[in-house]
Amino acid sequence: MNTITRTLLLFLLLASLSATLCAQEERAPATLFEAAQCLVSDPHHWVDVHGVTELNLAYLPESKSFGGARYIYVAVYTSAKHDQGTIYDIRLKDAEHPRVYSIENNASFVITPKEITFSEPPLGGAWRQNQLISSIKLIQRHRKWYEAQVKALLKPSTHFRCETNVEDVPPAK
């Protein structure tokens, strides 16, 4: 084999490996994955996964707006363009063991070129709505989306616990 052929084959091999690595989906970070598990497994069934094989997710960790309490905003997209879905406000509580994810708010949203709108105003008034809009904008700006297999999300875990502070919403049946 001559040098040109070897160089060409090496180049093709490297290009193939590079394309394969770029095509692989990045796994969702543990915090996002566990929060998503709460959203699909909580008795309130925040995210209906009936007939769905994977969820398209994004998230934003937050600890500045609430006196140092740690929160995570999780967006579950319902469109391939990432322009509509539901955002969840989840508090991360530091318990001894297991970790606790407390689902505290949610709102369905649509993003248009001019604004972000909600199908119903989120609980908590204008301040909360502005917080959610800001979080959605930051999530969109980061452009970091993850796909999680519903089958994996439905597996039980003993590493964390899910709860909600929503009292007036009966659990789904």
Please give a handful of descriptors for the protein shown.
173 residues, seven-stranded mixed β-sheet, globular, single chain, alpha+beta
Account of the protein in words:
- The protein is of the alpha+beta class and 173 residues long.
- The protein has one domain (26-164).
- Helix content is 32%, strand content 30%.
- The chain has helices at 3-23, 30-41, 125-142, 150-153; strands spanning 54-62, 70-77, 84-93, 99-111, 116-118, 146-149, 160-164.
- Strands 1, 2, 3, 4, 5, 6 and 7 form a seven-stranded mixed β-sheet that branches.
- Mean pLDDT is 80; it is low at 17-25.
Give the uncertain stretches in residue-range form: 17-25
Instruction: Tell me the span between the first and last alpha carbons.
Output: 68 Å
Rg calculated over all Cα atoms: 20 Å
Query: What is the average per-residue confidence, as pLDDT, rounded to a whole number?
Result: 80
| Class derived from helix and strand content | alpha+beta
Integer count of domains: 1
Q: Name the overall outline.
A: globular
Beta-strand portion reads 25-35%
